[in-house]
Specification:
Layout (H helix, E strand, L loop, with lengths): L7 E5 L4 H12 L3 E6 L2 H11 L3 E5 L5 H11 L14 E5 L5 E7 L10 E3 L3 H6 L7 E6 L2 E11 L2 H9 L3
Parallel strand pairs: 1-2, 2-3, 5-6
Antiparallel strand pairs: 4-5, 4-8, 7-8
Length: 167
Amino acid sequence: MGWLDGEVALITGGGSGIGRAVVERYVEEGARVCVTDVVGERVEELKSRFGDRVTGLVADATTLEGNRSARAHVIKPPTDDKTVQVGSLVTVRYEDGTEETLAVVGPWEASGSNAAVASTSAFGRALLGKRPGDTASASVDKDSITVQIADVTLPAAATDAVQTGAE
């Protein structure tokens, strides 16, 4: 397919104009897309045209409720809290036996903190989907790192937010 194979995108205002063009291109490049629009017929037309590649809902993304609805539609609650996902606290064991607890965060939340790993970074992508006992490896340039996942927790506040669609 293309450069977005396996990716999921949320596109607000995707029923017309630039938003619709982005939906079409993302699907062409292999992404699965969730579309929001204030006009239900537009959403239904895209779902009909692209089949299981597009899901969507009628929502106004300029409102808090619209944003919550869109997020809840895209983000499925975890089946358990022992699989690394955005929001997880992951205790990793390095090859020398030392352990460190890291927070897997969205790219906009990552800062200079060593304890926060952006989910979009090479190391963050290697951690996602892992469970205790699994190993994760990532390489950047000529450096590489391999860790064993010692523990995974999803803080109670994050579990509640994901399950209710709240922040």
